[in-house]
Amino acid sequence: MALLVTQLGIEEVRAHRTWFLCLGAVLIVIGTIAIGSVELMTMVSVIFLGWLLIFGGLFEIIHGFARRAWGGFFINLMSGALYAVTGILMVTHPEVAAVTLTLMIAMLLIAAGTFRIFVAFSTPIHHRGWLILNGAISLFLGFSIMSWWPSSGLWVIGLFIGIDMIFDGWTEVMLALSSGRSGGSATAQTAGA
After folding, report:
1. What is the pLDDT of residues 76-93, one digit of tens each?
2. What is the largest CA-CA distance in the chain?
3. Where are the domains positioned within the chain?
4. DSSP string covering 114-147, please?
């Protein structure tokens, strides 16, 4: 059954192979542009996140007033106000928001790396080496960001988004290219299994 589901997914990719290739190419180009202008990408991302928080906060406040009889009115009102104020601060002071978010990313990477290495050495696990490597890379990235902080706050977010877009784009491209390699229909392959 799992083979059938997997093959049906490949048939969908194969049917829309050009779309996957184009999407991948566009993501690679945009990711490369993002890496080429990491400060701009960081500011755009922080401002976009700020606007999302503003709109989310306003909707939560509206929801709170629309459902005043509900016991959660105060929590909706306060949560919405917190979202909206945070969003306004991010939109009006994107540099400060980027520096703050970057510090949080560095602390998260350090904590995650430490946890992964601790788990790798304290738990019998088959992929211990990969977990140690993953933890070491997280620690390296976290401490690298911290060593350049606060200036790293102006480029880290944009760099991470650009790298993610490039890898996502290559994933789409490789999926499209690999979908054309195997022939035959999904049902014919599973029927013979």
Report:
1. 889 999 999 999 999 999
2. 62
3. 18-183
4. HHHHHHHHHS--TTHHHHHHHHHHHHHHHHHHHH
